[in-house]
Amino acid sequence: MTSARLSPTTLAGLTAGTAVPRYDRASVTPGIVHLGIGAFHRAHMAVYVDDLLADDPSWGIVGASLRRPDTRDALEPQDGLYTIAVRDASGTRPRVIGSILSVMDANAEREDLLALMASPAIRIVSLTVTEKGYCHDPANGELDERHPDIVHDLAHPNAPKSAPGMLVEALARRKAAGIAPFTVMSCDNLPSNGETAKRIVTRFARLRDADLGEWVKSVAFPSIMVDRIVPSTTDADRAEVAALIGAEDAWPIMTEPFTQWVIEDHFPAGRPAFEKVGAQMVRDVEPFELMKLRMLNGSHSTMAYLGYLGGYEYISEVMGDPAYVKLIHGLMTEEAMPTLDMPGTDLGWYRDELLERFRNPALKHRTWQIAMDGSQKLPQRLLGTIRDRLKAGEPFPRLALGVAAWMRYVTGIAEDGSEIDVRDPHALKMMAIATDAGDDPEALYEGLVALTEVFGTDLADNAEFRETVIEMLDSLFEEGARGTVEDLVD
Fold first, then answer.
1. What is the b/e burial string over 52-71, where b = at least 16 CB atoms within 10 angstroms of the residue's CB?
2. d(C-alpha 355, C-alpha 299), whole Å
3. Number of neighbouring beta carbons within 10 Å of residue 480
4. Separation of alpha carbons 22 and 17, rounded Å
5. What is the torsion angle, in degrees rounded to the nearest 10, for the CA atoms of residue 79, residue 123, residue 70 and residue 51?
6. Phi/psi zone of residue 197: left (φ > 0), alpha (ψ -120 to 50 degrees), beta?
7. pTM for the complete prediction?
């Protein structure tokens, strides 16, 4: 058993072949605050920043956990250092990342965090708080003014709990001090994430104070597209990393070789030279974002629900089933790709790259993990594509099966009768609907489609959507997930 803990003092003694920071961390100063410092940020943005700190050490990251102090507790004894382990069929390659200077617990250190965000040194505040962290209605992208955290933050603006509340309070302090606003960079899978974040934050600011709301309109909210598959870290992963680097790492990050970052180049307060470390700086991110949401994320969610129901624990196992592969290939090729207008982009290459990534046997990406928070993800990942197919008068059986699989999954009862641990903001409401519906697919559909925060009102009233989804839902109850997939692709 390795006893040494990863830290600045143990860096020099790590196993040969372990990549370590090639800059003086003592010279790095914070320029970015990141809200919601989970696994994805540490596998993606923090790595890009790590690549550029040797040339510009003024862009260190201070992370903040908004809900739980787990990440802070894991990284604090390591001085923010952690290992990223890149996995594929050829093996695992470890690298120590040093771009995160510290992690703060927003609940315990709220005032210190707000003071830092309000300081002139911070020029970017980025976020990965997941869809639900925006306290919005995912069906229309507007601020949910009845959300408990929003109600609290409007009543107690100096002690905010939510991400919108944190951003607006820090911006209000900068305004009062005559300091230019920071740029807000959403790194979450939201449609037009920059515009969505701006709409939510500006509305919250206006509800606090009309003048503040007007000032916040001048804040830059560039849209971006991020892509890297990051499974949950297991104890077996920790043991593997410890053996590879020769030191204990409380929270290493496991990921794939592929990484992509497309960024709208709008940073009035300045930015790192992201383009020098592999990011694409563009005028319009939306086409890339839509491509990813509809092809990667839509496929991922479909595989998650159908895979879990079919008894597959990991995405790579789902991709070992020829019928599922055929389903996902068809979903991307025949239903998602025709809705994308991207001249000069080889969508066929992108599809094939995704299928290869999904097959990666070294990436233990759980179907259950991807299935979380489906009520927040469905509108962006599947329902927008379905709306475009309906508008074009084109069929959408595979997309409808994805929606039906979600409906079957959120009943909380698996095909073998075991309980599904449904993690979703609306889990209790949805399982109550399922209990009332019993084994009646039509009743289940009617109950769930009435959730306007997920489906809006247009889909609930659409006869073709109703007929197609109920047909798939009926098959899932009768034939099971594997049987339904096989029937559809046969």
1. bbeeebebbbbbbbbeebeb
2. 10
3. 17
4. 14
5. -50
6. alpha
7. 0.81
Q: How does strand 100-105 pair with strand 91-97?
A: unpaired
Instruction: State the amino acid at position 36 in one-letter form.
Output: G
Residues 6+ apart with CB under 8 A from 90: none
Phi-psi region of 344 (alpha: psi -120 to 50; beta: other; left: phi over 0): left
Q: How far is Cα 327 from Cα 404, in angstroms, rounded to an integer?
A: 14
Tens digits of per-residue pLDDT, 366-410?
999 999 999 999 998 999 999 999 999 999 999 999 999 999 999
Q: How far apart are CA 223 and CA 359, in angstroms?
A: 29
Q: How far is the C-alpha of 367 from the C-alpha of 308, rounded, in Å?
A: 6
Residue with tokens 């049987």: 483
Helices 110-117 + 163-177 axis angle, to 10: 50
Tokens coding 107: 């609940």
DSSP secondary structure, 357-416, as one string: HHH-TT---BHHHHHTTHHHHHIIIIIHHHHHHHHTT---HHHHHHHHHHHHHTTSB-TT
The 3-class SS string of 224-291 reads EEEECCCCCCCHHHHHHHHHHHCCECCCCEEECCCCEEEEECCCCCCCCCHHHHCCEEECCCHHHHHH
| SS3 label, residue 103 | strand
pLDDT tens string 86-122 = 999 889 999 999 999 999 999 999 999 999 999 999 9
Residue 332: name the closest of 356, 365, 355, 358 by CA: 355
The whole-angstrom separation of Cα 477 and Cα 459 is 22
Instruction: Return contacts of 276-285, CB within 8 angstroms, 24+ apart.
Output: 276/52, 276/55, 277/48, 277/51, 277/52, 278/48, 278/51, 279/48, 285/194, 285/222, 285/223, 285/224, 285/225
Residue 486 is classified by DSSP as H
Residues in the chain, pLDDT under 50: 1
- Asked whether 65 and 102 are in contact (CB, 8 A), the reply is no
Question: What pLDDT is stored for residue 278 in this prediction?
Answer: 96
